[in-house]
Design goal:
Elements (H helix, E strand, L loop, with lengths): L24 H25 L5 H23 L9 H24 L2 H8 L2 H13 L5 H18 L11 H20 L5 H19 L9 H27 L2 H4 L5 H14 L5 H30 L1
Length: about 300
């Protein structure tokens, strides 16, 4: 379940994936924990920048930094890196990942960091549903039960109809839906598309779309704004890099549950930077979401062992 986090909208150069695999799960876990800290730093910078810049412009700064970081791949490998057998799917994947980033950045304008992060972890439920419709996958009752529990946790966090409910809670849900679309499209392209090609198409699809929309919602950024924009792009890229390294040292089903440490980082950052303290029900919802995710990872580990044995 490594794709449960909708902030993981980009993938940096895939070269490290080809390195020799080493069985060192403790090191992998440590790398995941640090990667989640970098994601939280990116989220905190985006939330802070939302106070002075439109959300769309914040997203543009992130994608501009992302595009600059992948540009050396294009320059080194030349035009062939852009060749794809599935150009429409590449664009659709790029739009899905773009929607995930934009909706989450918008949510950060209105919601506390911990609540936005917790709500976004509904993504696996959407991935499961779309995998059945689009990929024809079969999902057993236990996995559906875990999905239902995860959704219940999200409802506990946002509490629709209650006094604490904020309509902006829909944005991290839309982010998760967009991310799920991108994940399923990625699976649909598996085996036919080069990882570097997908990386470049994702980066430049988002950058082109946001650049076209930027004149409709932009203000002149200050030097501080630009610096924070760089922090957002570099921190999220570093997080992706650390995740790629992490999965050299351990199986996804082992490492994925530790991505939920981001809920701890987000809660701490929200308190330290924005003086936001989640209420008791938010903590209960977080616990339910984490339990659902850990059980799903456990079931995936059992499925992997079964496939290996057969």
């Amino acid at each position: 379940m490594p794709d449960c986090n909708p902030r993981n909208v980009e993938t940096i150069a895939p070269a490290p994936v080809t390195l020799a695999r080493r069985d060192d799960p403790l090191r992998g876990i440590l790398l995941v924990v640090v990667a989640m800290l970098f994601f939280t730093c990116s989220d905190a910078a985006a939330k802070y920048l939302n106070q002075t810049l439109p959300s769309l412009q914040v997203a543009w700064l992130r994608y501009a930094c992302f595009s600059v970081l992948v540009l050396p791949l294009l320059l080194r490998r030349g035009a062939p890196v852009l060749r794809t057998e599935r150009p429409l799917l590449q664009v659709l994947r790029g739009l899905g990942m773009l929607g995930s980033a934009v909706f989450f950045i918008i949510s950060m304008r209105y919601l506390p960091m911990a609540e936005a992060a917790a709500t976004s972890y509904v993504a696996p439920a959407f991935v499961t549903a779309l995998s059945i419709v689009i990929l024809g996958e079969r999902v057993g009752p236990r996995r559906w039960a875990a999905v239902a529990v995860g959704l219940m946790g999200v409802f506990i966090v946002i509490r629709p109809g209650g006094a604490a409910f904020q309509p902006a809670a829909v944005f991290p849900i839309l982010s998760a839906m967009s991310f799920a679309c991108g994940v399923v499209i990625t699976r649909r392209m598996a085996g036919t598309e080069n990882a570097t090609t997908t990386l470049v198409w994702t980066a430049f699809t988002g950058f082109v779309v946001l650049t076209a929309l930027l004149p409709f919602d932009a203000v002149m950024p200050t030097t501080t704004d630009l610096a924070l924009g760089i922090v957002i792009g570099v921190a999220s890229t570093m997080a992706q890099w650390l995740l790629i390294l992490a999965y050299r040292y351990g199986d996804a089903s082992v490492l994925a549950p530790f991505s939920y440490i981001q809920l701890v980082w987000s809660t701490a950052a929200g308190y330290l930077v924005f003086a936001a303290v989640p209420d008791g029900w938010t903590f209960v919802g977080m616990a339910v979401i984490v339990a659902s995710g850990v059980y799903t990872a456990h079931r995936e580990r059992l499925r992997t062992r079964a496939r290996t044995a057969s």
